[in-house]
Write a structure and sequence with these properties.
- The chain has 356 residues and is mostly helical.
- The protein has one domain.
- 61% of the residues lie in helices and 3% in strands.
- A two-stranded parallel sheet has the order 1-2. The chain has a two-stranded antiparallel sheet with strand order 3-4.
- The chain is globular and about 60 Å long.
């Protein structure tokens, strides 16, 4: 009788007959694209400035929700068919200004293949005490900002967006820059078209408003909100006092990286159903072929299999404070989170106790 590994059991627990639906995918995209356009119109229309700002903030939320669709399509899991998924990814990524092929390289081929493995997965990878001490004063100051309560406001801008998601200049994409160039050109051109459209729409709807105000409420505020949501989401999905990071392949495994090191962050589903579904993140890492609308069911199955081995919590300010207070640096020898002085702030994860 063949022995089934924990990695295979985890993936098998979420696998079903192809759950992707073109009809459902088109419907979700149409609804969220329409709401994105409607809130963008509200952000530049002839309203009082506070109303424009509120619409701009809402527009940032819908950029994030369209990103979720593009994220699934980038995995090929949103709808049936490779060509459909490729174009869903390109179009859904226009508002967030991401080149689809660069996203697939950084996210699919690095983050997912070696989740929470330092040196391969760059998403909120923690410094060790030695790395922090060897860094320049400016870099240490930046790390303190990143690991504080307002870190997500700037993290994704500075670490990922232009450097990894628009231009093929990061070390992991430089060697194949020609492969990524068409998508980079596409996203730069559509970004320029988006800015022109926002300016023209603002002038037509509210000719008395200055151009700076139109771009403040129609692009700067929405893009800042989207970047914060993205930075905070990927931080919360993979950072918690109860989950480890790994420094080498010997201590890392699929189960440790994708089940033990991925968090299900729970929020009330009525706030943003698509976002709430996407936060069932352990299920997504266990089986990337699942579309976002199937993740809650798969997450429940994983929870029934692994119990407390699946990390989850309900998001609150208290929980967030606990996380950013404890998770400053990571000690890869003692396998625990520490403060900036190297003092442990969470329980030690002895490799032998991780199991599997």
């Amino acid at each position: 009788m063949a022995v089934v590994s924990s990695d295979e059991r985890a993936a098998e627990s979420t696998r079903r007959v192809d759950p992707r639906s073109l009809g459902r995918g088109l419907h979700l995209f149409a609804v969220h694209a329409a709401l994105y356009i409607a809130t963008l119109v509200g952000a530049v229309a002839n309203f009082a400035l506070p109303v424009n700002v509120l619409f701009g903030a809402a527009n940032g939320v819908f950029i994030a929700l369209l990103f979720i669709i593009g994220h699934d399509a980038g995995h090929g899991s949103y709808v049936p068919g490779g060509r459909w998924n490729r174009w869903f990814a390109r179009v859904a990524f226009i508002p967030c200004v991401h080149a689809a092929s660069l996203w697939r390289r950084t996210h699919n081929e690095m983050h997912h293949k070696r989740t929470n493995l330092k040196g391969v997965d760059h998403v909120w990878a923690p410094m060790s005490k030695a790395e922090y001490d060897a860094a320049s004063p400016a870099r240490r100051w930046l790390e303190r900002v990143y690991r504080g309560p307002f870190g997500p406001f700037i993290y994704y801008y500075w670490t990922f967006w232009l450097y990894r998601m628009v231009l093929p200049v990061a070390p992991e994409t430089q060697m194949q820059w020609k492969k990524h160039l068409p998508d980079s050109i596409f996203v730069i051109c559509t970004f320029a078209l988006t800015l022109v459209t926002i300016g023209l729409a603002g002038h037509a709807l509210a000719p008395q408003h200055s151009l700076w105000r139109i771009y403040l409420t129609g692009w700067l505020i929405p893009f800042a909100i989207w970047n914060y949501i993205m930075g905070a989401s990927i931080y919360l999905n993979h950072t918690h006092p109860a989950i480890p990071w790994f420094s080498d392949e010997q201590t890392w495994s699929f189960h440790r990286g994708n089940v033990l090191s991925t968090v299900h962050v729970k929020i009330p589903r009525f706030i943003a159903p698509l976002y709430s579904d996407a936060l069932a993140h352990t299920a997504h890492h266990t089986d990337m072929s699942l579309p976002v609308y199937e993740l809650p069911t798969a997450q429940a199955k994983l929870k029934s299999m692994y119990g407390r081995g699946v990390q989850e919590y309900t998001l609150s300010l208290t929980e967030y404070r606990k996380i950013y207070t404890a998770c400053k640096l990571f000690d890869f020898d003692r396998m625990c989170w520490t403060d900036f002085e190297g003092r442990p702030t969470a329980s030690t994860w002895a490799t032998k106790s991780l199991g599997h």
